[in-house]
Amino acid sequence: MAKTQYNADSITVLEGLEAVRKRPGMYIGSVGTKGLNHLIYEIVDNAVDEHLAGFCNQIWVTLEADGSCSVKDAGRGIPVEMHKKGMSAERIVLSTLHAGGKFDNDAYKTSGGLHGVGSSVVNALSERMSVKVYKNGQIHYDAYERGIPTVELVDGLLPTLGRTKETGTEINFLPDGEIFEKTRFKADWLKSRLHETAYLNPNLQITYQNKRVGEEETVLFHEPEGIISYVKELNSGKAPVHDPIYYKGTIDRVEVEVAFQFVDTFEENILGFCNNIFTQEGGTHLAGFKTRFTQMINSYAKELGILKEKDANFTGADTRNGMTAVVAVKHPDPIFEGQTKTKLASADATKAVFTVTGDELQRYFDRNLEILKAVISCAEKSAKIRKAEEKAKTNMLSKSKFSFDSNGKLANCESRDAEKCEIFIVEGDSAGGSAKTARNRMYQAILPIRGKILNVEKASMDKVLANAEIKTMINAFGCGFSEGYGNDFDISKLRYNKIVLMTDADVDGSHIDTLLLTFLYRFMPELIYDGHVFIAMPPLFKVIPKRGEEQYLYDEKELERYRKTHTGDFTLQRYKGLGEMDAQQLWETTLDPDHRVLKQVEIEDARMASEITEMLMGSEVPPRRRFIYEHADEAEIDA
């Protein structure tokens, strides 16, 4: 049971803060947009921890007009009393790495913050930070610049700004432009994360406000039905087989909460969370759920005579095809693989989810036989489709053998060092021809594709595997694919570190990009999650001044700036497509690692990705184009 006292004695100090600014990636994953947004999540997670401990039901998150972010909670407030180190505990928390209540088992039952690292890391990576602690009837104040305190303590304690009846903590911070590639927070990623947090905490209200010019909005996230509502939202627009099934339980201090529902779409969408953190790569909690669920469906199918003695069991994929599920655990001391907490490794989470799922689902299915039969029917249909598609896959494999280049289109590179190699998926034979001539043959491979590839959202597996363009890409990448029933994807066999989509900057090119991204997300999502997928950004213009050097311009804004800063005459050439460029121009603008511009594709979370993928295949072209350029992280890439 968590104690109610959260004071200076709850704060444990482990080490100093010096290393954070030198190696920020160790603490927040990256210095790109993803790492930037992670700063907000760290502060929000600390506020959510107060909620989990039973002391906070409201959080306010504000993107300020000046580019900073404010997070306020109605919790107990960071301890401000004198710490045994001789100063206010708040100063210790904000200026010392690994100083936090998360290390005191009595202060928090479960915690989502990075083991107490959060606040101090955000402080170290911010140009400035201000802190107000509403506690003991006073507003206590502190401020920092790049992690260094700028407020003088009074007898070791924080100065006060006045009296208050409120309790809680309010932090405002401005990310440091010396550390981050960009300092503009991604608003849609933040809203998605906050909404997700509201689903996982039904008694918590989160108010999001954007005060940035032109983006002003206020949204209240509050989901009283919790993860049941989450599953309903994930399945919006699909035909449900039954109402969401919900259960929870606790085993050895590990709290388990699960909601799932089957729909008429034959794909699996299972999201895992530990202490409110989305475990993108799954882990032991999902393993426990999947294993027990598969066992139960096979057992019930035999008991009901649906599976005969001679019949093979349903596979795990059979039993889960059509399932949307949210599996959330609260763990007092979780173990994660990797610094960024994307995979849960705690063995006791497997046992807890396995046991709770077995006990609660047996109780539910024994009382709801018709729903059980409907779920087993989904597994039957899935098994029939699997067998038909396995046959189609076998036929396709026997014909093509998945040879490295089955149709002769691929112009492969000479090197076999995957870390240095990159492959360009190029629209059209003419552009492909120029690219083959222009490339660095040692490290750059070119794969031309003809026209728009198959829309995998609307195609069966046999049609997908029979498509020539898709087969060629699977062959070339060398790592297999994840979708369907083979699940033979192995990223260690990927032949290229960068997969670059290189299409024209027009509507057709946009459509091809979206089809390619949908294929990669559905069949090889690990390529996107691990940062291997990029979009080439060829220039729209070339300016040739009467005096001075030629210059490539990438959009209308650059052209406008050029016109304002260059008064002399110049010739303007507009590129309608990659096919109009000769080999030298293509090298200079799109292939040369020293000068090209690539955008790295990032999909922030699976729920958002699923929504985006469905949106991409809609009839409206503008939203698709916006996705590609708004949900890609622009970066100058050195090869």
Automatic annotation (TrEMBL):
The keyword DNA-binding applies. GO terms for biological process: DNA topological change. Residues 421-539 form the Toprim domain. It catalyses: ATP-dependent breakage, passage and rejoining of double-stranded DNA. The keyword Chloroplast does not apply. It is an enzyme of class 5 (isomerase). Keywords: ATP-binding, DNA-binding, Isomerase, Magnesium, Metal-binding, Nucleotide-binding, Topoisomerase. One of its GO terms (molecular function) is ATP binding. InterPro entries: DNA_gyrase_B_C (IPR002288), HATPase_C_sf (IPR036890), HATPase_dom (IPR003594), Ribosomal_Su5_D2-typ_SF (IPR020568), Ribsml_uS5_D2-typ_fold_subgr (IPR014721), Topo_IIA (IPR001241), Topo_IIA-like_dom_sf (IPR013760), Topo_IIA_B (IPR000565). Its EC number is 5.6.2.2. Its cofactor is Mg(2+). Belongs to the type II topoisomerase GyrB family. This is DNA topoisomerase (ATP-hydrolyzing). It comes from Hungatella hathewayi.
